[in-house]
Each structure stands twice: as structure tokens, then as C-alpha cells.
Amino acid sequence: MEEFFREMAADYPRWNFIWMYDDRQQGKVLAGLWMTIELSILCLIFSVIIGLVGAWMQGAKSRVTRAIVQGYIQFFRNTPPLVQLLFFYFALGQFTPVVTGDDGWTVEPIISNVGWAVISLSFFAGAFNVEIFRAGIEAVPNSTLEASESLGFSRLQTYIYVVLPLAFRVCLPSLNNNLVNLVKTTTQAYAIAVPELLYHSVSIWNDYPSAQYPTMLMLFVTYILLVGILVFGMNRWERNMKIPGYGT
Amino acid sequence: MTWTPDQPIVSLKKVHKSFGTLEVLKGVSIDVMKGEVICIIGPSGSGKSTLIRCINALNDIQAGSITVEGQEVHDPDLDMLELRKKVGMVFQQYNLFPHKTALENVMMAPLKVLKQNKAEVEERARALMKKVRLDGKEDSFPGELSGGQQQRVAIARSLAMNPDVMLFDEVTAALDPETVKEVLVTIKDLAAEGMTCILVTHEMGFAREVADHIYFTDRGVIVEHGPPATFFDEASDPRTQEFLGQIL
Q: Choosing a second label site near B222 at 20 to 30 A (CA), which of A20, A236, B116, B192?
């Protein structure tokens, strides 16, 4: 296998699949892939939490609370995620405290570039998730809530046992879409030097211009697979949650 | 004031209710004794449904008083759960929880609200399903049942809380003619067992057969009332006569 790609690189100089036979380059690809997966999973989890909390806060009585959530959504939805990343890292990053390293003279900010990427991308995707969950909650008929109220359920019990299970089913398809976008948006963390897949790929083809086409190809294939796995899982989940005879 | 069974179990005194500037109830008074079956009839928009919804505090009132077993329903300090345990309600659109099976629908409130023992609740729920003649449909979801079956599940769900009074808000209005009967039979069984029932209905034959007392409402007031025999045959008010003339 290694021999095949080595020979191919020799015969066709534009098709140097260097990470198939060079351990150092292969290590970069794997490290990048791992960082991309890590980044995606963390952002998925946090953005869903932000979405749930935000949707709950939007139903609050207080005007101020609702205005804050609305402001948050408008800011994160209407500005480019790349600008947000740069702003979080370069602007906000300056105000966070630093810790001194073991050697006594180097300093590190307590939130690393990876940390800022997770925060920034989670808030970006979370803004969309708030709207997605809100739409789901609003789709639950008022009459169903009245039935639960007249059975003695408190507001919170109604929320937990009736509203959320129904709302979640309604919003799964749009949530699915947004999470797919989130996985792809993690590549923008490249701009603040988060060593994810794109970052390492660029570094590989800067060192070995002959590896540019193969590495780009690898990027496309990898993201198709990653998103494919996510969509497959979400679709299965959607099917499992389907209620017989409901909404057809 | 403690309530004794010789006093009205439900008592409305000069109840006024407005939605904004629209006055829907203009001083309605009704007394219901324990074990009585009351039917409220009248043209659309005459305030029948609003009236019945005020009894379990789904709607608030502007003036007057409503008591259930001597307890003021619209007292701001009222323990809402205490009221909801006493008063069961069945709606026109059934309003079952679509993500739960029929049996789970019946079990949910005793389990989650009253925190009763699961085995006992299940036993009772199965007995109730039998009582509404739906044994064998325990594991069906609401979407898999006909309207009449769903409505009987809704009745069983209300009965699971062991209420003292049952409210029926046009429960057969959304049903096919052939399934109306099965629901009415269920209600008749309940009435025969001595359950206090307050019904809003358009089923005149049923009202005549089952009701102890009939109230006719029009434009927010009770125009006329009496036991079915005298009410249907000797209605004196021209509005009642006109209404009965249209539907009988």
C-alpha cells in the first residue's frame, strides 16, 4: 500500500498522497481529524444546551430577559462566524486572565484558542438553535397544555412531560440542518490557529505543494463522511422518536 | 366554611366574565347538587364553554363567585392542585398526549402529579380502560384510535384522578355520528354511578334522557332552566322556543 502511493507520487508529481506513506504527515492528518471531531462534539453539545436555555428564557415573563435573548440571537445570527471567531480570540482574549507556566516566566491565557473556538462556534450555532426550539415549542397546541393543566400538572411538569417531548420531535429536522452546518463551520477555527483538519492540511500542502490535490480531495471526502455519520445518526433518532399515527 | 353533601357541590353566583370589552357571561347563577347531571344548552357564542371552563379555573372571572365543595375557585390563594383533583374535564378535541399510549395517558397524572405507586396506578388504569370499553387498546397511540375511542380514553384519563365532579365541554361535537353513541353511553354509565356531571352539549335527545336539570343560555345569561320534561315541552321564553324549534 505505502509502496503504491510512493510510486504514484514519483510517476505523477501532482498526486503525492504523502500522508499515506509519511508517518509525520499522517500524524498531522489524524491529529487534525481528531481535533475536528472533538470541536464538533463539544460545539454540538453546548449549542444544544444554549438553544434549550435560550428558548426557555424567551418564554419568560420579564421583558428584559426576552430582550437579552433577542439581542443575542440577532448579533450571532446576523454576523459572519469568521468575524465572531476573530473577535472572540483577539478582542475578548486580551481581557482574560493569564496563568504563569511551570518555568516561571511564560504566560498562557486561561482560555486557549481551542477554548475560544468552542465558545464562539457554540454561541453561533446556539443562536439558531434557540429559534429552532422556540418554533417547536410554539407548535405544541394550547389545548394540549390546557388538558395537562386541568389534570393538575404544574407549569414545569407540563413543560417536562408534554411540551419538550412534542417540541423536540417537531424541531429535529431543522436541528439536523443546523448541526450539519456547525460541523462544517468548525473549519473556520483555522483562522485562529486551532489545529483542526483544515489547519493541518494547509500546513501539509505548504510544505509539499505536490500533495495539494490529494489533500484537498481528502478534505472533501472526510467532511462528506463526518456529516454523513451525523445525518445518519440524526435520521435514525428521528425515526425512533416517530409516534405511530401522529402528524401523518 | 366546611362543605357538607347537602349543600351544592358546585355553585355559581352572579358570575361575570369578559374577554377584553366583550362580556361573555352577564351574571350567571347555577347550583349543582352532588350526583346531579346538568346539561347546558344554547346557541353558539352564548357562553356555554366559557361557563364550564370557569368552573375549573381555566378561565378567570371578573365578578361573582364560583365554589366547588365550598371552596372559592377564584381565590388567589387557592391550591390549584386541590381544585384539579376534585374537578375532571373532558374537551371537544380530546387533547390526549399524542406521544403516550392510551394506557400511559391514563396513568400519567396519577404518577407524575399525585406520585402514586406505579403498580396500583396501572391496575386502576387498566380497570378504567375496561370501564370505557377499550380493553385491548391499552398500547395504541392516540393517533391510531378513532375519535370516539380517543374521547373515551380522555374520559378514563380524567377519571384516573378520582374527581368528584366531571365537566364535559361539547365532547361529542367533533365526532362522527356513529361514534357519538359510544361516548354518550360511557357518560350515561358514569351518571348512573352517581358521578356529578356538568355537560355542555348539543345532543338534545341525550340531555332529555340523562339530565336532571337543563339550563338554556343565550347571550351570556341563563334564559330558562328546569327538569327535562318541563323544559322541553313547556319552554315559555320565546328565545328558548326558537332555539328548540330550530334543532328539534
A: B192
